[in-house]
Task: structure prediction
Amino acid sequence: MSGKPSERSKVVCLGRTYCDIIFTGLQEMPVLGRERFAQDVTIAAGGGAYITAAHLASLGRPASLLTRLGTDPLSQSLDPEFEASGIDLSFIERSDDAGPQPTVALIKDGERAFVSRRAGGSRPSTLKQALSAPDIAHLHIAEFATLADNPDVIAMARSHGLTVSLDPSWDDQLIRQGADFFEICAGVDIFLPNVEEGKALTGESSVEAILRSLAERFSVVVLKRGEHGAVASRGSTCVSAAALPVNVVDTTGAGDAFNAGFLNAWLQSSDLQRSLGAGIAAGALSVQSVGGVPSRQS
Result:
């Protein structure tokens, strides 16, 4: 019968969902008082929870999106993409105060800048229902801001036998909370920052020192290093993997794609090196096209 703990395989991804408006082909970044023109623009669903869930689904891993969406036209314009994503959408809450949540992404020479708007609260009314669903094996929290709004979510997940991962996702205010950050994150099994977040959180400058400091707090630490690949540790085991040589078009969502690859392999095997390689492969696939999610071919 379905619902037995041994048959759990689905990942539920918690976080805000945005409408990404992505400008590419910029010759110069905007400055105050001057207009710049982009060669192309893409409008797509975004946010770490959605992007990670979409990549998980593309890898064959059942995934649910746990989020709040608005009822405004911009939010509703994302519905066709959601429906084509292969994600379980049954835990999405629709609310008038949850949108619009746009993100404008400006891409130049492989680098990016973002401006986003958060609307309403981040706690879906479906939270308890999602975490208690019998086929859920793992909770992925896509941003620390959502965890800070809902500090009880880790304990809730663990009470249902779920493992938990967190991508802190850069936030100028929240990322510098010091000891409070780690207190709120207590109980996270897999921590997935990038190297800049690791520096801000630990005050360390070298990859080795960052990893060593974070390993005192989390069972598994995965440090994403962009074009330099990634490193990971579990206990006394430390492994690394180089980035793959690919043509970089847009790095939006690459870290979230990496998370999906890593988590899918980790939930299958608990093999650190294999999982790191799978994360690198998923991230490399993501940067070769505009937008954060993989194209689905049916």
Q: What stands out?
A: The first strand starts at residue 10 and ends at 14. The radius of gyration is 18 Å.
